[in-house]
Amino acid sequence: MPKLTHIDKYGKARMVDVTAKGITTREAVAKGSIFMRCATFKAVQANTVQKGDALGVARIAGIMAAKRVADIIPLCHPLNITSVDIAFEPIQRKSCIDITATVKVSGQTGVEMEALTAVSAAALTIYDMCKAMDKGMTISNIRLIKKTGGKSGTFVRTGHRQ
Questions:
Q1: Tally of CB atoms within 10 A around 148
Q2: Contact in structure between 140 and 33 (CB atoms under 8 Å)
Q3: Catalytic residue among 71, 98, 128, 134
Q4: Which of 14, 24, 30, 158 is the 20 to 30 Å CA partner of 51?
């Protein structure tokens, strides 16, 4: 089992020192889903949600969240993110919207948390935009799909867990 880098020799939480790490191009892709009633799904697709463009606002929220991860997750480094892309895939047969966040940086540490946070914030924003119609929406299956760059190399989620 790999050594936990966020723990010091006394077992206390700490921020990892990345000073000596080389700057490399790093990318992370995360996904998640928000399930809703059929009528809510149709309203989102038709852009007739009372609060406005749910997906447009969720896209901006995801981008903003990726840029602010160090403010909400205590041991994350503030990063100069170079790219954030938020994509939505409506799945009509499930009345859900799949959300994909792709985050890139040239830096000394990865952007997995930024991609996961972007998906989470986008899903929460869709919930907020639509909650007057459907308080029973479910956000689920937020997960890292792929990460590249850095010392640990490439990770790609495979099989049924994708």
A1: 18
A2: yes
A3: 128
A4: 30
What phi, psi does 96 have (nearest 5°)?
Answer: -140, 160
Residue type, 120: S
Q: Which residue has the tokens 């990345």?
A: 18
53 catalytic residue (yes or no): no
- What dotted CATH number matches 30-161? 3.30.70.640
What Å distances lie between residue 153 and 23, 40, 59, 146, CA to CA?
14, 41, 28, 11
107: tokens are: 């830096």
Give the Cα separation of 142 and 106 in Å (integer).
24
Q: Tell me the pLDDT tens digit for each residue of 103-141.
A: 999 998 889 999 999 999 999 999 999 999 999 999 999
Residue owning tokens 């989102």? 44
pLDDT digits (tens, 9 = 90+) for 7-34: 778 888 888 878 888 888 999 999 999 9
Whether the model pTM is above 0.85: yes
Element (H, E) at 46: helix 38-46
- Nearest C-alpha neighbor of 86 from the set 116, 127, 113: 116
Measured distance CA(69)–CA(78) in Å, rounded: 7
